Amino acid sequence: MAAPREPEVIRDKAAMRAWSRRRRAEGKTVAVVPTMGYLHQGHLSLISAAAAASADPVAIVVTIYVNPSQFAPSEDLATYPSDFAGDLRKLASTGVVDAVFNPPDLYVRGAGRRAAATGGAISCLEEEEAAGDGHETWVRVERLEKGMCGASRPVFFRGVATIVSKLFNIIEPDVAVFGKKDYQQWRVICRMVRDLDFAIEIIGSEIVREADGLAMSSRNVHLSREEREKALSISRSLVDARTGALKGNTDCKQIKNKIVQTLTETGGQVDYVEIVEQESLVPVEQIDGPVVICVAAWFGKVRLIDNIEIDTRS
Amino acid sequence: MAAPREPEVIRDKAAMRAWSRRRRAEGKTVAVVPTMGYLHQGHLSLISAAAAASADPVAIVVTIYVNPSQFAPSEDLATYPSDFAGDLRKLASTGVVDAVFNPPDLYVRGAGRRAAATGGAISCLEEEEAAGDGHETWVRVERLEKGMCGASRPVFFRGVATIVSKLFNIIEPDVAVFGKKDYQQWRVICRMVRDLDFAIEIIGSEIVREADGLAMSSRNVHLSREEREKALSISRSLVDARTGALKGNTDCKQIKNKIVQTLTETGGQVDYVEIVEQESLVPVEQIDGPVVICVAAWFGKVRLIDNIEIDTRS
């Protein structure tokens, strides 16, 4: 790693865009790593991927913004962990981050006239806010946003696609890095970029795990020691499934049942276990091409997700 | 007007973006005028507005693309008029248009696997296309897209917001000009640009009318001479309503009833007559601030729209 270097902290949208355009005018590739803060080794690996994204000099922007629109009112927006000072130290220690974009709020708030609700699901943004003159534009990736995390978190991908569009329009990056731990999110963003013609290369960065296999997540901090131990059953069952599939156990119903059984026996509450095609996220019955097993499960009050890619042909 | 000058015709997305970035690097303001072709004096007035948009030299791109996703299968995509050679002559005659973006198709087509329909309304794009690997990302301006034209054309503004997002991402303009004849469309675009943080100034350009008052539209060509004569009742009734309002007749129910009566008596079939706040498009009962009266009506097989802004305080 390079020597420690303080990134510039930018809070204003116009200043952020001007910063980015200056870097681009200097011939630099602008790479963005969107985060919600409370950074861990997983995030730092995204930054390494950004640094390696181009042969040209890369100007790296890390965004730290907890996006209200991707949380439903019942979800954990209020308790989402944060440590901005700690985040800045970690970013400085990488020596490669040029700017941190940390805006106070990225949504226009209306005058308080509440419009008729348009559907079942609303986000924290809409709960606190009237629809009158406030934010009302949403980017929807209509097929990929359904199923898996989209089934149990109905506003999540709409909020993600929308905030990422906003960040893309503010920062105008050439490259953006997303973690494959949020596998469906990564595919949603890739599809959105293709469909809306954003001039941005999306890099999917591999999952970073603790020494014992637990996928890194800002939410892990909320796990008790006991819950954390139990939660190891997620990564273990995924690795076992992969090993089995490569040996010929490719029946998805069997594989899923076994994972559900393992997680349940260790005290987890399964949200979903799905085996889907890697790009389309369409469920498959038999593993005979590039697939990914995706899992979401609750341990205590913490919802964890994890996944493993498998390609029996490779 | 300047001397005639042939605009460069660009059909490829990457070439368009490269063209635009070169102009910007030269210090020019890039202005785009999105059209569906079959150009008339109304479009040319948008180009004049684009030319006047900045004190810097302006590079003007006119897009000509009939966007399938904003037409429902029941609508007139197949018969939408076109005359590319004539359009080019008209653009050359302005002497100020630098490029014409005329792509063959801007949507990714899937492999033919049809996903379950997600709602009632679909567009021509979705009818011809399976949802499998094809385009599935939509930009929705959820409140403004409802009502008026959105009520009778349920996929229209979704298609418009999406194609405009795509054109913005391909061309990366500094300025975009839209006609206020499509009043709701203009407001939808303004809101989308605000909500998604596009770095683009939107200019709303005034309605251009024939000598007899008919608002210019590519669809006017489909009117018979008799229908065209009858259709003048639209602009006449709007001007009468405005004159009346400025004299104190500000009761919206009365005004709307009178317009409906006039249009019906002259053989029109009214789709809607609405009096709404100019920015929010929320219906009002009394005219006591900046409002706009919007009308859509069929004359024969042609659906025409028109509107008039009124501000009794000015």
Automatic annotation (TrEMBL), chains A, B:
Organism per entry: Oryza barthii
Protein family according to the UniProt entry: Belongs to the pantothenate synthetase family.
Name listed for the protein in its UniProt record: Pantoate--beta-alanine ligase
Listed GO CC annotations: cytosol
E.C. no: 6.3.2.1
A GO BP annotation: pantothenate biosynthetic process
Primary location class: cytoplasm
HAMAP family associated with the record: PanC (MF_00158)
Binding partners and assembly: Homodimer.
Cross-referenced InterPro entries: Pantoate_ligase (IPR003721), Pantoate_ligase_C (IPR042176), Rossmann-like_a/b/a_fold (IPR014729)
Sample GO molecular function, one term: pantoate-beta-alanine ligase activity
Substrates-to-products reaction catalysed: (R)-pantoate + beta-alanine + ATP = (R)-pantothenate + AMP + diphosphate + H(+)
